[in-house]
Amino acid sequence: MSVTADPALTAAVAVGDGQYARQVSGFQLKDVPLLSRSALDRAETLRGDEQALKEGWAQARLLRMNRRGQIRLHDGTLVLDEAVTLAAEPVPEAVFLGVDGGSHLWAVRDNDIDGQLVDLRAVGESLPTDDISLGVLTTAIALLNWHDRARFSAGDGTVTSPVKGGWSRISESGHEEFPRIDPAVICLVHDGGERVLLARQHTWPPTMFSLLAGFVEAGESLERCVAREILEEVGVDVRDIRYLGSQPWPLPRSLMLGFTAVADPEQPLAFSDGEIAEAHWFTRDEVRHALSLGAWGSVTGRTSAGAEDHKLVLPGSISIARSIIEAWAGE
């Protein structure tokens, strides 16, 4: 059986093979992406120890989160209740997150919480990066979102029950299932010089632009996904694809894998798959100016000037997109 490869994709991902062994210099991330800076001890060995989890429950702390992913804040910090206010011992619907200062940490879905409620998008940039807050929040969101959608086995359709502190579910037939993570690539496309390609989705405000991204398909490598997604979304062929770093993105359950690639700015843009409303090549100076304005929310919140007065507004630091853009802009 003969197999014919897609010439465009083959050329795009060939860098690194012996035939295309040239090394391309480029920028690196200056800092670990915000949501990857977790100081949380996940205590994996405790998950299957029911007795240890029961014993730790008496002094455990509990994060309550509603179905919109909102939690309570007090003076800028996460509100963690005593776990015993929920029940005398661990309940099936609670998920074990890890350990902090000798205390077990849990999370539970609670739609009756009140007070100052915020979600990850709103509060992520303001939470300290040198403690457990971001790790607790991202892990809780990812696990609770998975449980909401995994109540029946994908294998045989029978009801599943949580086990191992919420880190897996067992079906009535005995099949064990684990939290699902969807890998997605996000790529900064530049011309090898002073220009970068940024795009806007249809649902975004008129001047908000970011990097191109997409989900990895079955049987596909990360590099080939980068080439395919960019070709589908903006009609551009890329080369010199290079990995930069990763970040959890539990909205609802993704892992963002950051890349950079080079493209020809003279190649016409084409938005064939309908996901992108528009895309443009911006100069490094334009990007640096946009970064100096802050993120989308901070720009629109200013009284002196709204975002409509600016040509380009970029996403906030909660996204790996900003980390990548900052690294390229500061090269």
Automatic annotation (TrEMBL):
<dbReference type="Pfam" id="PF00293">
    <property type="entry name" value="NUDIX"/>
</dbReference>
<keyword id="KW-0378">Hydrolase</keyword>
<dbReference type="GO" id="GO:0006742">
    <property type="term" value="P:NADP+ catabolic process"/>
</dbReference>
<dbReference type="GO" id="GO:0005829">
    <property type="term" value="C:cytosol"/>
</dbReference>
<keyword id="KW-0460">Magnesium</keyword>
<dbReference type="GO" id="GO:0019677">
    <property type="term" value="P:NAD+ catabolic process"/>
</dbReference>
<comment type="similarity">
    <text>Belongs to the Nudix hydrolase family. NudC subfamily.</text>
</comment>
<dbReference type="InterPro" id="IPR020084">
    <property type="entry name" value="NUDIX_hydrolase_CS"/>
</dbReference>
<protein>
    <recommendedName>
        <fullName>NAD(+) diphosphatase</fullName>
        <ecNumber>3.6.1.22</ecNumber>
    </recommendedName>
</protein>
<dbReference type="InterPro" id="IPR015797">
    <property type="entry name" value="NUDIX_hydrolase-like_dom_sf"/>
</dbReference>
<keyword id="KW-0479">Metal-binding</keyword>
<dbReference type="InterPro" id="IPR050241">
    <property type="entry name" value="NAD-cap_RNA_hydrolase_NudC"/>
</dbReference>
<keyword id="KW-0464">Manganese</keyword>
<feature type="domain" description="Nudix hydrolase">
    <location>
        <begin position="179"/>
        <end position="305"/>
    </location>
</feature>
<dbReference type="GO" id="GO:0035529">
    <property type="term" value="F:NADH pyrophosphatase activity"/>
</dbReference>
<keyword id="KW-0520">NAD</keyword>
<dbReference type="InterPro" id="IPR000086">
    <property type="entry name" value="NUDIX_hydrolase_dom"/>
</dbReference>
<dbReference type="GO" id="GO:0046872">
    <property type="term" value="F:metal ion binding"/>
</dbReference>
<dbReference type="InterPro" id="IPR049734">
    <property type="entry name" value="NudC-like_C"/>
</dbReference>
